[in-house]
Amino acid sequence: MHKEAAIREPLILGHKTYHDITEDVCKPIEDKAPKMWYILFGIALVIGLYGVGCIVYLLGTGIGVWGLNKTIGWAWDITNFVWWVGIGHAGTLISAVLLLFRQKWRMAINRSAEAMTIFAVFMAGTFPLIHMGRLWVGYWTLPLPNQFGSLWVNFNSPLLWDVFAISTYLSVSLVFWYIGLIPDFATIRDRAKKPVAKKMYSILSFGWSGRAKHWNRFELVSLVLAGLATPLVFSVHSIVSFDFATSVIPGWHTTIFPPYFVAGAVFSGFAMVQTLLLVMRKAMGLEAYIHTKHVEYMNIVIMVTGSIVGTAYITELFISWYSGVEYEAYAFINRATGPYWWAYWAMMTCNVISPQLMWIRSLRRSLLFTFIISIVVNIGMWFERYVIIVTSIHRDYIPAAWSMHYPSHIDIGVYVGTIGIFFVFFLLFARYFPVLALNEVKTILKSSGESYKNAPDHHTHEETHSNH
Amino acid sequence: MSLLIIKRRTPIKIMGMTRKYWKGLEELNQTPEFLNSKDKEFPTELTVEEFLGDDKLNETSTARRDFLKFLGFSVAAATLAACEAPVTKAIPYVNKPENVTPGMPTLYASTYYDGVSYASIIVKTREGRPIYIRGNKDYGITYGTTNAQIIASVLGLYDSARLKYPIEDGKQDSTIDQAFGDGKWDKISTKWSLVDGKIKQALASSNKVVLVTNTNISPSLAKAIGELAGSISGSTEAAVADKFEHIQYDAVSYSGIRSANLVTFGKSMIPTYDFSKAKTIVGVGADFLNSWLMPTQFAAQYGSKRNPSGVWMSKHFQFESIMSITGSNADYRGMIKPSEQANVLAYILQKGFGVSTGVSTKLSAATQTIADNAINALKASKGESLVVAGSNNKSVQILANKLNSVLGAYGVTIDTNVELNMFKSEDEKMNRLVNNVLSGKSPDAIIFHNVNPVYTLPNGKQFGAQLSKVKTTISTAAYADETASKCKFICPDHHALESWADYNPVTGHYALAQPTIRPLGGTRSAMESILVWAGKKQHGGRDSKIVYDYLKENWQTILPADSVLADAHSAWNTAIHNSCISLPVAVTDAVLTFNESSLTGLAEGLPKSAAVEVELYQKAGIGIGLQSNNPWLQEFPDPMTKVTWDNYITMNPTEMRSGGYVTTYDQEHGLNMAKVQVGNAEVTLPVYPLPGQALGTIGIALGYGRGANGENIGKAAFQTKEYGGHVTDDNGNPKAIGANAFPFVRVLGGAFCFDNAATVTKTEEIYPIAATQIHHTVMARHSIVRETTLEIFNKGEKEAYNPAHTLQKLDENGDHVKRPVSEFDLWDKHPVANVGHRWGMSIDLSSCIGCGACLIACQSENNVPVVGKDEVRRGREMHWLRIDRYFASDEEATIGLRKDEDTFSYDKAEVAAENPKVIHMPMMCHHCNHAPCETVCPVAATMHSNEGLNQMAYNRCIGTRYCANNCPYKVRRFNWFNYPSYKKFTEVNPAQDDLGRMVLNPDVTVRTRGVMEKCSLCVQRIQAAKLVAKTEKRPVDDTDFVSACADACPTNAIIVGDWNNVNSDVREKSADSRAYQALEEIGVQPNIWYQVKVRNEHNQLLSELQVAEHSSEGAHNNKNNHH
């Protein structure tokens, strides 16, 4: 059995037994939902439905209901898209990359993080669809054999690569998430008393019996999928960044974008995980499994990726001057001092300064502080995309075409609406799905559980036992 | 189961053939049904009736048949609702009309005259519908020049607000409206006869009949008016004056020129001017490229001498208050108050030529410097110069005459033998009539033809109120406009494109206008009306030939019976074919002698200076408001301010900043309103920051505030709401666009004058402004606009004023070398070079005057939708071609070049100078060979043709807008809404109106919602040209194809053609030393070339920067690479 140093902080606090873990995770599913859940769900649903209403109005009337214009063809739509895709990065990173690196602390958070990823990618995927002028012919972006003659998609277009990248990422993430859910569904199925629930969970668990063969295959598939998903973590946002990097627009046309977008995505993704889990652990009584140490680990990731992002910002600024390209230089001067200076400095403050505070141990272990920073980071990352997209095109080459972007209430409605829909999904997930990978957590109970780790008797006992 | 049954039931005989197989129990049991049907090969089917005959089926609440009916209906209804049925009637030509080939345009030569603009035009019709107007380059006195208003006038033909039949006492006649639906035209004729009877009776019983028209240059109409006069008063001359009076009244009067000439030369006339012969042009408040006298002539003349590579280039000085189109093109521009016009002329006369006039020569220091420059230039080009003054003040015009006569301009640049027959406004007579009406001494009958005095008179409102007291008032207006709606009878005239007319614009030149469509309504030519009222003719009905016959008969005296045109008939046909005929002009007075005594006492007649002076001007789009219901013109961005759908107060931003006004504006930030008061009249309008506006002056455009009392002059003349519908005032009337500035017109020395002393009071109210350009400087970006002076240009070093873009690369020896950007390429060469056609365009920034005719021509040709003020404010105008207007900033040595690299400030570069230089830069799709838009479209909806065109496949477009974002020139336009049907655009977009839709060019697709569109380089015209060449079995010639913009350009600044044709103009232009490509360094390889703007000025700083720096090679290149 894997041994862990005694001084390493345990990952599961308190005297938890295997059964306790099962109880803790299944309790919210089996109990009646608390009143708070209904209130939150109601709020999220109303906001979500408002967003759907805005989208329906948009589709019925035209893209003109947004605040775009002849100069600024993308603004909140693509900002939101990139923002959500970025948020959707943490889950797969946690489940795939950390799995490959055998980071055990991931087990407490990977399930929710993956769920968040999937819902975030849903939200992200909405925007490229609804931002199209003619959604009803949007399927032309797929390389389908057709009756239009020799008409084919344009493989040069980064938007087309986006279609492939996002759909691949979504499918792999979904499969990965679901595979992990199967043994846990089986546990719930076995405990379920109501016939409907039993039937539903037995369908969802695909006949999982917990045999060794099953576990063997489960581990194998997880590893294979992790191997598949790892490059996707890096490809998706790299490709999203190509939407900008391959263009000719100063401020978009930047080779630094792919790594910087990936770092930014992980940055914002982890921040979103923090936001959600800090609330969830409290609401669902999971303090023993998701505790300060987990938060601290994630804060370190935020700090590192935040620093990468900060470095990228400074590099961009330097290069814009060093390149000697007039338009490039102006694009960045304009970002910092032009009409959208507030967006730029909001981005700089939120993304560059705030993660640096995590160097202080007491702060990165403070849950309240973490919660605040996690929200600040996501505000900052939204502004980062807004700054890149809008402040670059609002003043590009031809000054006569320079313009300003003002969002319409539909812009705002659709954005806020997607947040509502996201929470509708997440709340349903929290209510009906095991929010902790309970069977995986059980595997680390003995190596990283507090009661086992800090009980020297226990170890002695084992040893004596074996000596017999 | 069946197997078991068989085993149990089959009678088994062990041996032989006795074993029996059966197919079912029926056979086994030998039932009667089985026996009955056993010999039939096919079973009899149960009939549907039998099957459904079951009574129980009828017990359901919906009967079966009903159900099927419902089902069938709903399927059919859903199907019908799902697809639009655009064609309700499609009737093929069984007998093809003569001259109409479906799909081929028919062109008619005609003439445009609306009292303000005059031009020889060609009307393009398709399947009987006039859809496009362009200048007639082969015949006439206007060199094929038109302007935005003339081109846009075709849309007015299809305005459904035009009256369709005579109106009596303002009452619509529902029975006649019905008659239109039924096609009963005889009912309309009856109505006309009824009204005619009443009018004739009223005229006969009147003590005096006054006919008010705008300046009439039609010889036939003049004759008809004579006949009316005769019929009313008998034949003797004295009696005519007593009983009948014809007053010519122009809304914008030039009577000052005529009266000045009467004093100085003894002849009341307006001579003709030739700007192409003037080496030095001094304009004093005369916007001669836009509104002053005959801009359709002057623009072409002026443009022909603005080419720095020509034999010579004219030098243009302009002194003016408002930054006009003309002023923006001047080489030197001084800012003066309207009252200082005389001072400028007096100063030049005094200082330059020693003529003292008794008029103050006081000028500001800056103006004085420019005036001194002007004096030097005038002296240097004596005899080949021209001074024009815009004021309608007699004294100012006398000073201008004196200066021109000192300069020897008469007989060279001014032709007094060929007189301009336009603008014969009789201001004094008109004022007398107005005063008579106001004081109750009105004549019994007043007929208004082509005038709208209730709107255009300074005291029009009072005049309108008194009109009801006049016994008989008749208007021939096409709309129930401000004046017509107050008249007893409205006898609507045809639209110009529906009627015959003749004109005599200048001495010896006669022109014809011919109808290009059968009248759409029950209107009648005003000439016919007058003839009918004179008792000479009877109402001719829908296809009346009265005017045609009358003209033809009349023209027998005009047409020469010389040997070339052997008989009158062929001469007439030739005249119609060409639309005009020029007769030799007798040269009577070679040089007029200036009457020196006219210089005495000039100062008294001059306008007094005031702290704030308002000048009233005409915008290129709206003019004096004749077409204020024309959405193309309302949405036409003003060439200087780029504002659409409004008039405003122009003020210098320097003054606005000190006065606490807002000076920047965008979608959400409007401008301050201010109240302007002149005497008792006041208007409240937004204040627009116009650099170059003289300090202490403001400008307000005429022509707005039409229909302020809810007169039905067309949907587009009124303000629209954000989600469609008109904005209404307290009375429920639609609100007019802008405010009427005519009440500010003053009468000075008997003439209408268009400047006045005013007081301006700022209000805190903020008003939204819809402008197509909100940033005014080019931020010293040298690769967008390039400018130099004639001096530098003549030194002949291209590198000085038009340096090539170079990049560093390593050569084979590993050394850094500078190579032109064209050598750096990420992509494979696009295979258009030297193969087949490669369509390209060259735009000369020196000749482009920014008039905007190209923009309207493009809109008309390419069915560009109108989107209304709210959408323009949101930056969503759809114009495929825009004209970027850049003001110089104080940070620039000249537009596009930094003054000092070290102290350059972006913040300061954003602010236009107080009196800036201006560049107009037409901007449309550049058809890049390495188009950034093409690579990013996921569905390949935009791609390159093998003729170098960047094409849009609207059908393929899914509307991601990535192409628009990635376009460095920002010329792509997205269909944000369904413009042809969304309610927001009902009031503004002609394509939403059954009649308005008729103006659409059938060769160009109307774009749907959600797709991208942009300039196609008039690909439909390219295709047509290729087809013509193909049928004629010859290669496509350079002259075969011309785009709408190039066609409309009065100065030939835009040239299109086949770049692969080595002899083409565009090829030659692209190799010119002035040729450059905007943003060449980003490597998109556009097919559009610009020509460096050359100003005929001395610019010391520019000489130092461009010439001096060029001599030190390294420093220069350094600069260019790094700014």
Give the rounded overall mean pLDDT of chain A.
Answer: 89
Number of strands of chain A: 0
Quote the beta fraction of chain B: 15-25%
Shape of chain B: globular
Helix content of chain B: 25-40%
Using only C-alpha atoms, the radius of gyration of chain A works out to 24 Å
Which strands sit side by side, in order, in the main sheet of chain B?
26-19-23-20-22-21-27
Keywords for this entry:
heterodimer, A: 468 residues, 71% helix, globular, B: 6-stranded mixed beta sheet
Structure notes:
With 468 residues, chain A is mainly alpha-helical. Chain A has 19 helices and no strands. In chain A, helix 10 (292-322) packs across helix 11 and helix 12 packs antiparallel against helix 14 (367-393). Chain A is globular, with a radius of gyration of 24 Å. The two termini of chain A are 19 Å apart. Residues 458-468 of chain A have low confidence and may be disordered. Chain B has 1123 residues and is α/β, with parallel strands linked by helices. Helices cover 29% and strands 17% of the residues of chain B. Chain B contains 36 helices and 43 strands. Chain B has a 7-stranded mixed β-sheet with strand order 26-19-23-20-22-21-27. A 6-stranded mixed β-sheet of chain B has the order 4-15-14-13-5-6, with helices on both faces. Residues 1-14 and 1112-1123 of chain B have low confidence and may be disordered. Chains A and B meet through helix 6 and helix 11 of A and strand 32, helix 30, helix 31 and strand 38 of B.
